Amino acid sequence: MGLIRRHPVLSAIAVPSLGALSIVLATAMAVWRSAHTDDARRVGHADAIIVLGAAQYGGRPTNVFVGRLEQAELLYREGRAGTVIVVGGKQPGDKTTEGDSGRAYLIQKGLPSDAVVAEPVGNDTYESLKGAVDYMKANGMHSAFLVSDPWHNLRIKRMAGDLGITAYASATWRSAARSQRTRLEGYVRETFAYLYYRIFGGH
Q: Which residue in 34, 10, 22, 88 sits closest to 56, CA to CA?
């Protein structure tokens, strides 16, 4: 540190770098803490359950998507909300959307068709959440459990709050989080995704 103090150029480089590193580390800790917090343990009921879409092929959800859908099914059967909203558009070449394939999966699992809504819009998290929130506001809903992978919790709660609803995260560990490497990659990716969102917003 004495060397840095004696050299203004080094100081000019080191101080901002240490500040940026501190922000990244603090965000990483916040992502980790949020991933290990299930709001369903303290919140009994919300107006809706929003399932964030994931890849599907020919209408068949991938294992990652199935994990999220099963968590939403569990919350619904526990009486946490009367409506499940599955979000997500489609990629080029897809025959159907994430929202529609997720809805079909839940109905096949026995959920009432009038309790499961597809909002098949958006090719990123923010736009998909916006579609769900627009539906909620149009139907007098104000709060929701958000279901995704655990490392997404901090960012999606922030996005949903910015969009104007009260958001609770209840993630699934049953699909995407199968290995330590997968989890580490998720935490790192989400740390920078959250910082990007805070700086640049959802557009």
A: 88
What CA dihedral angle connects 202, 136, 113 and 44, to 10 degrees? 100
> What is the rounded CA–CA span in Å between residue 27 and residue 143?
25
Q: Per residue of the chain (203 residues), what is the pLDDT tens digit?
A: 454 455 565 455 555 666 678 899 999 999 999 999 999 999 999 999 999 999 898 889 999 999 999 999 999 999 999 999 999 998 777 889 999 999 999 999 999 999 999 999 888 999 999 999 999 999 999 999 999 999 999 999 999 999 999 999 999 887 666 667 778 888 999 999 999 999 998 75
Instruction: Supply 103's token pair.
Output: 């809805």
**Phi, psi at residue 84, to the nearest 5°?**
-110, 125
- At how many degrees (to 10) do helices 153-162 and 180-200 cross? 30
* DSSP label of 114: G
